[in-house]
Amino acid sequence: MAAVAATIALSAAACGSATETPAAAPQTTAQAAATPAAKAAAKISANTATEDQITAALRGAGVANPGHWAEEVMEYRPYDSTDTNMDRLRQKLAKYNPGADTMSKILSVLQP
């Protein structure tokens, strides 16, 4: 009888653990780098990045038509390294009348 009770207890314990929600797995380095703060810190150089790198960064920021905007960024090189707000690029892109959201996304991934 004791053996039957022990078997039932073990079965119940095993069933209970199967329905528990597993603990969240720790973030990998790649996942941690994808946080908004990490994205903001991981800007690429508008002066030295390739067009493909700029396109990828803009795509990652959610910019519509990233290839077009990458071409425009490349066209107006070089950018003054002291222009940390990218005012010159902002001025050049403004003539294409991007929305405020698009402009913000473009500038969020670039540094001089």
From TrEMBL:
Entry superkingdom: Bacteria
Keyword Signal among record annotations: yes
Signal peptide: 1-17
Keywords recorded for this protein, A-Z: Signal
Protein name per the record: DUF4148 domain-containing protein
Organism from which the protein derives: Catellatospora bangladeshensis
